[in-house]
Design goal:
By secondary structure, the chain is α/β, with parallel strands linked by helices. The chain folds into 2 domains: 123 residues, 3-Layer(aba) Sandwich (Rossmann fold); 68 residues. 52% of the residues lie in helices and 14% in strands. The strands form 2 sheets. It has a 5-stranded parallel beta sheet with strand order 2-5-1-6-7, with helices on both faces. A two-stranded antiparallel sheet has the order 3-4. Helix 2 packs across helix 5.
């Protein structure tokens, strides 16, 4: 039995166009919970996670919040360290997600933009899982355009994430992003329209 409101989980690997897709859902009137933005808030100046992160990873925080490069250097490619960080971050983000759900409970559907949806078991709380996907060459080109990104760091990030083909296999809906944005928007619009119609039956 679907939840009310309907909970849509949106996920995808780095560089697959997830943030763009989330903004398209928002344009269509679907409230969006952005897990990445929430992590930035919790780890930003005065954020609730600065103390626990500094205690576990000394020297990775300061007046501006978490030094993401320093923290990334401590955890990327290091399974135990990454697990320790996730044990700090994931419960806090989960609590924020529940607060978002309470605030927007009157809407027909909500979108939860969560990069590690599968990795954290979050799909169990969703009614529908949407995965955004694009070919590797395009993913690589998008990611390497980011400031401070290198081929080596991209390789480490890909290795630390669930492979795209596994996410696609576990998806209820796959949205391809290797095409003009208007086509992706049209596909998302059709999906939202169909879901709204199904909810009023």
């Amino acid at each position: 039995m679907p939840h009310r409101p309907l909970r849509i989980g949106l996920t995808g690997s780095i560089g697959m166009g997830k943030s763009v897709a989330a903004r398209m859902f928002a344009r269509l009137g679907v409230p969006v919970f952005d897990a990445d933005a929430e992590v930035h808030r919790l780890q930003g100046p005065g954020g609730a996670l600065l103390g626990p992160i500094e205690a576990r990873f000394p020297g990775t925080t300061g007046g501006a919040g978490v030094d993401r490069a320093a923290l990334g250097g401590r955890v990327i490619g290091k399974a135990e360290e990454l697990k320790a960080l996730e044990a700090i971050v994931h419960p806090a983000v989960r609590a924020s997600r529940q607060a978002f759900l309470r605030r927007h409970g009157g809407h027909a559907m909500l979108l939860f933009d969560i990069p590690l949806l599968f990795e954290t078991g979050g799909e169990a709380e969703m009614d529908l899982v949407v995965v955004v996907s694009a070919p590797l060459f395009l993913q690589r080109r998008r990611v390497l355009r980011r400031r401070g990104m290198t081929s080596q760091r991209f390789a480490r990030l890909r290795a630390s994430q669930m492979p795209d083909h596994v996410k696609r296999a576990r998806a209820d809906v796959i949205i391809g992003t290797a095409r003009p944005k208007w086509q992706t928007f049209a596909e998302i619009e059709r999906l939202v329209t169909c879901l709204r119609r199904s909810l009023v039956r």
